[in-house]
Amino acid sequence: MLQSTIDKICFKGFEFYIKRDDLLGEINGNKARKLAFYFSQVYSKNQRFISYGGIQSNALATLSIFCLKRNIKLIFVCRKIPNFLKENPCGNYALALKNKVEIIETNNINLKKYALSLCNKEDIFIEQGIANLNAELGYKELANEIKEQSIDLNLEFDIFLPSGTGTSAAFLAKHSKFKIFTCSCIGDESYLKKQILELIQDYDFSNLEILKSNKKYHFGKPYREIYQLYKELKQECNIEFDLLYDMIGLNIVLQRKWEKPLLYIHQGGILGNVSMLQRYAFKGFK
Ligand SMILES: *Cc1c(COP(=O)(O)O)cnc(C)c1O
């Protein structure tokens, strides 16, 4: 069973709480919560997992650790890997290589369809970003854990977590007694809604509010103010946050007036920063 602490921090005079899912262990962050269902399953000797997506994704890194530990073969379909990265593996990609993932590059435009075509009957197919219905179990547990901790702390929270596919935010909002706020880090608000509805038909958004960023950020692109915020948080709070999702989310969090104490869910992904920091260094940010 997963369990993380809640820490109180102060940044530029704003006091809030952090759910330290980044400290869950080797498998951490929201990908650990999403995999909770798979922890409890029994696998056959020649079990294979087949997934697809970004070669530097946190999902790949997390799946590679899980599969190595459970003696499962992981096959991961991705787009052509840039030569520079192949010659200088780093971050999540380097970990996947170390963990013996069979990586299959393809020019096929439909990665999912291609990955599915590799599946035999006994194989377990995992959606990009581990965005599937089995993820719900981990969020039921997380909602309960937060409820118990809120009683110990004698606090009623508002909760914020940034979204990619929205799987984490949607399931947490479904099970939490506290109001959940999120933002879209890939595409706009309607794109996020669509993603959630694709996963969970008839999803009831009444406990999930999608907040807007006042600037449009392109996923994975370097921005000066994002790097600045990342550095300041690290210095002032001694916590490293993820560059792709957290910086978009925290920007919004810090600009908003919150009525209740805010609980921010740290969703891990720190190993993924290595490759982003290289891009920042390449652009001359120090
Ligand atoms: C995968 C990931 C997200 C996005 O999670 P979704 O459930 O797809 O919305 C956010 N933050 C971090 C650090 C992640 O690794």
Fold and architecture overview:
This protein is of the alpha/beta class and about 290 residues long. The chain folds into two domains: about 5-25 and about 135-280, Rossmann fold; about 35-130, Rossmann fold (3-Layer(aba) Sandwich). The chain is about 40% helix and about 15% strand. It contains eleven helices and ten strands. A six-stranded mixed β-sheet has the order 1-2-10-7-8-9, with helices on both faces. A four-stranded parallel β-sheet has the order 5-4-3-6, sandwiched between helices. The structure holds pyridoxal-5'-phosphate.
Shape: globular
Q: What Rg, in angstroms, do the CA atoms define?
A: 19 Å
Oligomer: single chain
How many domains would you count in the coordinates?
A: 2
**Which small-molecule species are bound to the chains here?**
pyridoxal-5'-phosphate
Strand order of the largest sheet: 1-2-10-7-8-9
CATH architecture of the largest domain: 3-Layer(aba) Sandwich
Protein name: 1-aminocyclopropane-1-carboxylate deaminase
GO molecular function: D-cysteine desulfhydrase activity
Family: Belongs to the ACC deaminase/D-cysteine desulfhydrase family.
Keywords: Pyridoxal phosphate
What is the strand and helix layout of this fold?
Layout: E1 6-11, E2 14-20, H1 29-39, E3 48-52, H2 58-69, E4 73-79, H3 83-87, H4 91-98, E5 102-106, H5 111-117, E6 124-126, H6 136-153, E7 158-160, H7 167-175, E8 179-182, H8 189-199, E9 208-210, H9 224-237, H10 246-255, E10 262-266, H11 273-282
Parallel strand pairs: 2-10, 3-4, 3-6, 4-5, 7-8, 7-10, 8-9
Antiparallel strand pairs: 1-2
